[in-house]
Amino acid sequence: MKLSLSTFEIWQILQSKLFGKWVFSKLLCMKAPYFGSISPRFNELRPNYCKVHVAKRRSILNHFGTVHAIAMCNMAELAGGTMTEVTVPSTHRWIPKGMTVEYLKKASSELTAIATPLGEFDWSTAGKFLVGVEIKDLAGVCVFRATISMWVAPKPCKL
Fold it and tell me: Tens digit of pLDDT for each residue in 130-139?
């Protein structure tokens, strides 16, 4: 008997239900509480793809009235990490090792982050799994770009 569901299995159950995407977003933020600071809403999730929305609200603004740079970093890490979680085989584990970011324009509206892998990965060995994240405003203009380096390795064998 299987006692727990994977992140992707939970998404598949909830995403088509009334308030399901909202519930999924809240559950994920319960597991990783810091992401609750941006009040994300997952729109799409599948292996090799994650789309997350964040509304423009006072709690994530800077003194200029635009979305704070670190709020966008949180968005990028959430989208990139969740995409990695549903992409990496269950025989492997992963952890973020680094992130480079570019702030391209002021973010003056609600935002959408899209995370996808950058290139192919050899699952037979440990190594860097690179994730690209673009954050766009309501007009579809890219305001932020990140490359996240995830360390992926096979899980140790249990005896």
Answer: 999 999 999 9
